[in-house]
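Box 3.1 A note on notation
Throughout this textbook, protein chains are presented in two layers. The first layer is the amino acid sequence; the second is a token string describing backbone geometry. Keep the layers aligned when reading.
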Amino acid sequence: VTYRMRRLPDPAHKISRGIAAGVFTSFTPLFGFHFVLAAALAGMMRGNLLAAILATFFGNPLTFPLIVAVSMEVGSWLLGRPSLPLPMVFEAFAAATLDLWHNMIAIFTPATTHWDGLFRFFDGVFLPYLVGGILPGIACAIAAYFLSNPLIVAYQKRRVARLKKRFAKKREKVISRIERQKSENYSAAE
């Protein structure tokens, strides 16, 4: 990931916009769609798509408990509802996944579908998480943009200077070789 981020060809502001889109996406409860959502946001913001996809790793097993807790707390407060404890949120996601799986299987078997658990999940967990993730997601995306942009600018300048220096050394070697061949040819011609 680090190697690929170093080789992104776009200007720093475009890469930083992609990073901001990926970080914001990490605050949504749309697990499994973070790559697609980050790429779509980066496209709308004219940011780097690959940077957006790579920045979705801001949401990882270490940061998701904090992201979920903050998003649920803010969402519950904005919607005027009591906040759920974090273990209950994870249990609700697991139960909703099982209900969804059961309903998908029920389409092809004689079993009946039950959507009431998913409706309760949507109203009690998904909606507060979605609404609550907007404000902290925007705050972290803005912070990611303003932290990454100067770092990327500095890195790109240093990389260009290093490449110029390497090119100058190669050019100097080629010129000295050509001059040496000219002097050898000139002395051979005398």
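The chain has a mean pLDDT of 89. The first helix runs from residue 2 to 6.
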